[in-house]
Every structure is written in structure tokens, then in C-alpha cells.
Specification:
The chain is of the alpha/beta class. The chain has three domains: about 70 residues, no CATH class; about 230 residues, Ribonuclease Inhibitor (Leucine-rich repeat, LRR (right-handed beta-alpha superhelix), Alpha-Beta Horseshoe), CATH 3.80.10; about 60 residues, no CATH class. Helices cover about 35% and strands about 10% of the residues. It is built from 15 helices and eleven strands. This is Blast:F-box/LRR-repeat protein 15. One of its GO terms (biological process) is SCF-dependent proteasomal ubiquitin-dependent protein catabolic process.
């Protein structure tokens, strides 16, 4: 922790202890009052709160090179700094400067380190350790040389975390997302675009806890499917902006779930999603949402909702969550609906498809549902 020089402490103590209102002379030897220096002004009451806030990080490091007193002032300013933005800064010797920042900063609330190719776990962990209890926004987009180890203090210790951006972080794994599910439920903005190592199942579980999300980016994430969008629609009711560009596995079914449940939605980025058509986008256009895909009058060539084959997941969801009084189910010519979801229904729901196996005892049928 940065401390003041002995002379400065004596000066501040003398000024604070003088009760008659007269000015206490500075402990610095000077021949005339006109020789008052900048650092003779009270640091805690004037310089740090009212001047250092206007100095950029570059200004502080330039000031730090002037003298020993200037160095102590610069480090005291870093200690009280609440925001650090080094996004895209890949200049030479930036790693040495970052070590100083990591040692001095103690009150950071916002941390932007996107596209920092030089950033490693050894550099980042000390900074996170010193500021983990105050951080509310962390941006690590395209930080390719760190690992999931750096996320541990963020996931476990940052109880006030609201914004987390991890775009193009190929080191983000299913295990890290599972840890986020356990410890972070207050996120309002989340970005995992271009993260190909995450599984579909962990995303489904993850979004069940994030009922406060307003901004979500899942662009070019291959594990984002209709099932994931259904969970987002069911649990993230406050969602306002979502980026689904390049999610080729989603279709009109998933977008329809967002249309029905996310009534606060204002922005939908849906380019390069070939299975999403105007059948699901038209209702959103009527609500005057911003959609990055222009309207196309090609309905005769578009997919129809009835053309999409229902899957085991959709049948299971409809039977267990929505249609509680279902008595008859017609699923012939539905190749994606298998005996995994039908076997537990036989005997209590009329099915038009003969049994294809799974001769299980009634007490074991629930195991098939768990696999869906």
C-alpha cells in the first residue's frame, strides 16, 4: 500500500492539528512564501480527489518519472483509481508497467483488458487478488494467453460482478461455465462469442440462473441451439439485446421462444443464421425491434415452422412443462423424436407409433427423461 513521505505526513499532521485557523508553515525549508510547490498542497483533501482524477494512466507514469515525491503521488493516485482501461494496448514494456499497476491499484471496479496479447496469468492474478471484492465489470475479450485459472478469483470472489466479457477466449471450458453457474447469478451483461469449447448442456443449466440478464452475446458459438434459446426465453425475461450472429444451429423455433417470452427485447442480431426466416422475424419487426437482417420478400422460398422436425427435447419440454393433460400424441414421420422420450409415456398417453425397444420397468422410465 502506498504511503506518504515523512515530511508530507508531518506537514499534514501540523495542518490538521492547528485549531486557531492560522496557516501552518510547510516543513519544507523555503526562503519565501512564493516558493510553495505543488506537492505542498494537501494530498488527501485536494490533490488526490480533485486533481488526480483528471490524469490519464500515461500522465501518471510520466509524473512518476519526475522525482521520488512525484512517484509516491502517482502510486497513491493509482491506489484510489476505480477504472483501468488498457484494451488494445500492446506497446513495448507494457508488461512492466502493468506490474506497477497490479501492485498499486486496490479499488478497481471496472477492468478493460480486451485484445491484450501480452497478458498472462502471472500478470493478471495479482491485480485480481488486490481488487476482487470491488470489481463489477471485467472485459477479457481476445485475451488469448491467459487460462481459466485467471477466472477463479473472478468467479468465486467477485460477488458484485455485473458485466463479464470473454469473447474469443478459446480457453473458456465447460468446467469454467459450470463454476460461473454456481457462484454468479447477478450478471446483467455476458459475452461468450466465438467460444467453441462450451457444451450445450452446461449453457442450458447456466441460463436458468441468470434471470437478470439484459445484454447477451452468443455470436458464432456452435453449441447455441434452439434448446438453449428456449431456456433463455423462459428464464431471462428482462433481456433487451441479444447477438446470435453465426449461430447456424438455431431455427425459427428458438427465435419464436424469444419472441413470446422476452417482451423487453429491443435488439436482435441474427445474420448468418440460415434456418431463421421471416416466419419468426415478422412478429418482432411489428414490435419495432432492431434486426440486423433486412426484410426479404421471399416467403415462398422460406422455411415454414411446420417443416422443422420436433426433437426429443421439444417433445419432453411440451409434455413436462406445458401440456400436463395430454392424452394423445401423434409423432409418425418425426425422425428426431426417439424412443428415449416416448418410452416413459407409453401406457398413459396414446401414441401412433409402435414401440421400438427400451423394455424397461416402469420404475426405470425416469432415466430416459434424464437423458433428453
Amino acid at each position: 500500500m502506498c504511503s506518504l513521505h515523512v515530511e508530507e505526513e508531518a506537514h499534514l499532521a501540523a495542518m490538521g492539528g492547528n485549531g486557531d485557523g492560522t496557516r501552518t508553515p510547510s516543513p519544507r525549508p523555503r526562503s519565501h512564501e512564493a516558493n510553495i510547490a505543488l506537492f505542498d498542497i494537501c494530498w488527501e483533501d485536494v490533490l488526490l480527489p480533485h486533481m488526480s482524477t483528471y490524469l490519464s494512466l500515461k500522465d501518471l507514469f510520466n509524473l512518476r518519472c519526475c522525482s521520488q515525491t512525484a512517484r509516491r503521488f502517482a502510486e497513491a493516485s493509482l491506489e484510489k483509481r476505480q477504472e483501468l482501461n488498457l484494451s488494445g494496448n500492446n506497446t513495448s514494456n507494457i508488461g512492466l508497467a502493468f506490474k506497477v499497476v497490479a501492485r498499486c491499484c486496490r479499488r478497481l471496479e471496472v477492468l478493460h483488458l480486451a485484445c491484450c496479447k501480452w497478458l498472462t496469468d502471472d500478470l493478471l492474478l495479482p491485480l485480481l487478488t488486490n481488487n476482487k471484492h470491488r470489481l463489477c465489470a471485467v472485459n477479457l475479450n481476445e485475451c488469448v494467453n491467459i487460462t481459466a485459472l485467471s477466472l477463479q478469483p473472478i468467479i468465486v470472489e467477485c460477488k458484485d460482478l455485473r458485466i463479464l466479457k470473454l469473447s474469443k477466449c478459446q480457453w473458456l471450458t465447460t468446467g469454467a461455465v459450470d463454476a460461473l453457474t454456481l457462484h454468479q447469478s447477478k450478471l446483467v451483461e455476458f459475452d461468450i462469442s466465438h467460444c467453441g469449447a462450451i457444451g450445450e448442456r452446461c449453457l442450458i443449466i447456466f441460463f436458468r440462473k441468470l434471470n437478470k440478464l439484459t445484454v447477451l452475446s452468443l455470436a458464432h458459438t456452435p453449441s447455441v441451439t434452439d434448446q438453449v434459446l428456449i431456456q433463455i426465453g423462459n428464464y431471462c425475461r428482462e433481456l433487451e439485446h441479444i447477438n446470435l450472429m453465426g449461430c447456424v444451429a438455431i431455427s425459427d423455433y428458438g427465435v419464436h421462444a424469444l419472441t413470446v417470452h422476452c417482451l423487453s427485447l429491443r435488439t436482435l442480431l441474427i445474420r448468418r443464421c440460415p434456418r431463421v426466416t421471416e416466419h419468426s422475424l415478422a412478429p418482432l419487426r411489428q414490435r419495432r425491434l432492431y434486426i440486423d437482417r433486412p426484410w426479404q420478400d421471399n416467403a415462398h422460398n422460406a422455411y415454414n415452422l411446420n417443416d422443422f422436425y420436433p426433437s426429443d427435447f421439444l417433445v419432453y419440454y411440451a409434455l413436462t412443462k406445458t401440456c400436463t393433460r395430454l392424452q394423445s400424441l401423434m409423432v409418425q414421420r418425426c425422425p428426431l423424436v426417439t424412443e428415449r422420450v416416448l418410452a416413459p409415456l407409453r401406457g398413459r398417453v396414446h401414441l401412433d407409433r409402435p414401440s421400438m425397444g427400451y423394455n424397461l420397468q416402469p420404475s426405470q422410465n425416469h432415466r430416459l427423461f434424464l437423458q433428453v
